[in-house]
TrEMBL record:
GO molecular function list: polyubiquitin modification-dependent protein binding; proteasome binding; ubiquitin binding
Pfam families hit by this protein: ubiquitin (PF00240)
Domain called Ubiquitin-like: residue spans: 1-60, 84-155, 169-241
One biological process term in Gene Ontology: proteasome-mediated ubiquitin-dependent protein catabolic process
Protein name: Uncharacterized protein LOC111317562
GO terms under cellular component: cytosol; nucleoplasm
């Protein structure tokens, strides 16, 4: 949707996504106008747009809504040598650390890893209820200052999600009337097997002669290179086998 940015008494249009975060819009404005993200205040009808929310969280923002941009001075000190003390809190402990205001979130995670040994990939850092993203923003631009508290949540490592287990499926092949007198053939396959694997198995066992075949599951032609799991095949399902081929457009 299009919104109208109002700044310094001037207006200009900008396209934004309905689900686009407020923080992402501020980054666009930084590139367009040169105003640092931390120095921007965006508001609609007096309501300030909060960095941790998306545009869809504000029902008052619709097509051609006017959004006021008010630049604000950055809080000093803001230089490359400004060290600050922060507290990094875990669920059962906390760590005092000295960091630079200009460090990135990624750099902070690396320091926490060195001090505590927590894997970087498992860390989610939060400040004032907002998750800190691994991007080009530095700690000051998130409002982190002297004695700020950073909360660390640990992501659960789910190997099952990365490598889902393979399931055995008992399926039934129902041949057409031109094949094996319309016989029903029970078979056992893995859900990770493709339709082409099934076809090659039938040919190798000489259950079917060399030819082109179509496999139908729940009234849909199955794709040769896709797995049974991809097709939504469940234990006990029935397939129909016919002679023939299908063009790519048929997929």
């Amino acid at each position: 949707m299009r919104v109208i940015i109002v700044a310094w008494g001037r207006e200009f249009a900008m396209e934004v996504g309905f689900q686009e975060p407020v923080l992402a819009i501020k980054r666009k404005l930084e590139q367009l106008l040169g105003i640092p993200v931390g120095a921007q205040t965006l508001s609609v009808s007096g309501w300030e747009l909060v960095d941790g929310l998306d545009m869809e969280d504000y029902p008052i923002v619709t097509h051609d809504t006017k959004i006021d941009l008010t630049p604000k001075p950055l809080s000093p000190p803001f230089n490359h040598c400004s060290k600050i003390q922060i507290t990094v809190k875990f669920s059962a402990k906390q760590i005092a650390m000295e960091v630079d205001r200009t460090e990135t979130v990624r750099s902070l995670k690396e320091k926490i890893h060195i001090v505590d040994g927590t894997p970087i990939k498992r860390m989610s850092l939060f400040f004032s209820g907002i998750e800190l993203a691994d991007d080009f923003l530095n700690l000051s631009e998130y409002g982190i200052s002297e004695f700020s508290e950073i909360i660390v949540f640990l992501k659960t490592v789910n190997r099952l999600r990365e490598e889902p287990p393979t399931r055995k499926l008992n399926i039934v092949l129902q041949m057409s009337s031109s094949l094996l007198n319309a016989a029903s053939i029970p078979m056992e396959m893995n859900d990770s097997n493709t339709v082409n694997d099934l076809r090659e198995l039938l040919l190798s066992r000489k259950i079917l002669p060399q030819d082109d075949y179509l496999f139908i599951h729940k009234q849909r032609i199955m794709r040769e290179n896709c797995s049974l799991k991809w097709h939504g095949v469940e234990n006990g399902d029935c397939f129909y086998v016919f002679k023939g081929t299908v063009s790519r457009t048929g997929y």
